[in-house]
Request: fold
Amino acid sequence: MNAVEIQELKKTFDGENYVLKGLNLQIEKGNIACIIGFSGTGKSVLLKHLLGLYKPSSGVISILGKNIADLQDSEMSSFRCNFGVLFQDAALFDDMSTLENVMFPINEYRKDLSYKERKELASAKLDQVGLGKEHFNKLPSQVSGGMRKRVGLARAIALDPDIILYDEPTTGLDPIMTEMVDDLILSTHRSRTGITSIVITHDLHAAFRLGDEIAMLDKGKVLLKGTAEDFFNTDIDLVKRFVEKGVKKT
Amino acid sequence: MKVEKNLQDNFIFQSLTHIGSYFLFTKQSMQWLFRSPYRWPEFFKHMEFIGNKSVFIICLTGFFTGMVLSFQIYLGFSLINAENLVGPTVGLGIFRELGPVLTGLIVSARAGGAMAARLGTMRVTEQIDALDVMGISPLQYLVSPRVFAATICMPLLTAIFDAVAMLGSYLLGVHFLGLDEALFIDKVNNMIDPSHINEGLFKAACFGFIFGTVCTYQGYNAKGGARGVGDATNAGVVISMVSIIVMDFFLTKLIRIYLGWTSL
Reply:
């Protein structure tokens, strides 16, 4: 079964220039799918479509069997509980402590739990991503970039979503931190069966390491979709160059 | 297609688009205000920020405004031996116009600017997107409580401004300019009607709503990093201030001529 199915997705902001030009993509449930590509190929626009933040100009986006273009705003809001998102800079609320950040979605959706239970649940999620208790009461500005990613991930998985999206999770991090975040993605994915992870990245090494399936975007379309092996054996010139540069760099 | 593009680049078209989206934003924010879950903790947090934290600056400004207005009016009225009317004249000016307008300008610069900068920063650091993807309406969580708090706080702050300005006027008039204390109080009591105070408080609530919606709209729609946040803050404060002064005229006309709430 496919967790995500995109058919002929087109998007234009000015009615003239198309960012996405008839994109087709299927992501199988339970897989880690990595979406790679050069800057400006439409990766972030695709992500915002998956989250329902952008409406497609045309085409169908079906997530967990539902065409999200058909959903009303209020329906979309509740449907978004199926998603967890780790943003590029974690997007933590800067006036809340790390623990409060993770408690935030729990407070909104788990009103059946007592305050103590909600706090314990948030603490458990922070433990799961390896954040020590001594950092629970710190503000996001008082912890390192890597820790912010951990908190962002803990918040993303706070409600046990079916789909976790990672927007450029390793951009701006050093190699050791990058590996730590990659490990975190893998361990989070394996922590529960049936989770689908979608990683938007231009880090080829991470994509080959993490991805059960990898899709490369170019000019608003999927240029190649397959496994790491398919990317090494391809005849498509642009993909070959991207792989060569990416592998050399790593 | 080219004609459409030229139209989109047109200044008037862009201005109309902004005005349209501002009204839509305001309407949606108001609708969210009456939908559960009600954001009381957020509302009280913003009441504290807009209200409590503005009290000192409002008192300071009010006190000196009352004194300077008394002094200027005294200088003019003393030429025609009408010094005893200094108190009620200052009162009418403060209660009807200067109280709400100056409070509006001060609070929109202080709290409105902070609101626009806060929401702008949240926008460019994807915190608003994060709320959206959690299925929480940013309008309900971030905008509605701020607008409501601004609308409620402004009349309260204006009342404080009015009281402190009258105190300043009394102290200067009676203790430094030698006006008769009993006459000062008597004239103020006789010539100032509660409807004059209500007129100012009503205007203040309108000004709170205006700067609340304008500043949150600008911040909410900020684009492009630190510069975008700066532009949004600047636009929020400037548009709020100009709107308050322009709307003051129309509100005065509405209250005094069409609604006939006050006499004199």
